[in-house]
Amino acid sequence: DAMVIQNPRYQVTQFGKPVTLSCSQTLNHNVMYWYQQKSSQAPKLLFHYYDKDFNNEADTPDNFQSRRPNTSFCFLDIRSPGLGDAAMYLCATSRDPQGHEQYFGPGTRLTVT
Amino acid sequence: GESVGLHLPTLSVQEGDNSIINCAYSNSASDYFIWYKQESGKGPQFIIDIRSNMDKRQGQRVTVLLNKTVKHLSLQIAATQPGDSAVYFCAERGMEYGNKLVFGAGTILRVKS
Predict the structure, then answer these.
(1) Which residue of B has its CA nearest to A98?
(2) Which overall architecture, per CATH, does domain B10-112 show?
(3) Shortest alpha-carbon distance between residue B90 and chain A (Å)
(4) Which of A15, A38, B17, B93 is buried deepest, with most CB atoms within 10 A?
(5) Number of domains within chain A
């Protein structure tokens, strides 16, 4: 089945140690999104790629970066994770940037020790 | 707008009863709305969507109602089942949000057997 895949599902990193989360999709969608979701809160958009165009949200910390080497893959890099960055990180895709139906991956649960 | 609450409203229903989950959205110019279901430890799953030129849309066991006058969206689930237990998020899209989806705070649905 076509889908959005995130690896790993669970990631533990140390305070300040860079970490990369990955997302891949078989939907051939043009747009890929990264969201941060903390406990009992709604997903919060960090940034998105429309094809190769990177679109950062105004309040996304510089500590968060992203790469999209090709249509299928997108990475979230956290350069120096802090305790406050512990969260679920969700990748999503959509066919177009108008934000119509977004397909979400299962998420990566990040723990910072 | 962005969700900041740490205590999500909870709706408890008996198995077999109908459920109604409500959402007040922010922007009167929003033109597209989605309901997502998120089970514990998983990514949001699309349930149903509706455009602003409609006031009702039905799916399998679910109905979404849109009242633009009072900026209110509801999700009705018929014959609620234990597998419906999850957090439900509404999301809106509009030009004022840069055509991105903005998620509401979420509602916990608990189904009692």
Answers:
(1) B99
(2) Sandwich (2.60)
(3) 10
(4) B93
(5) 1
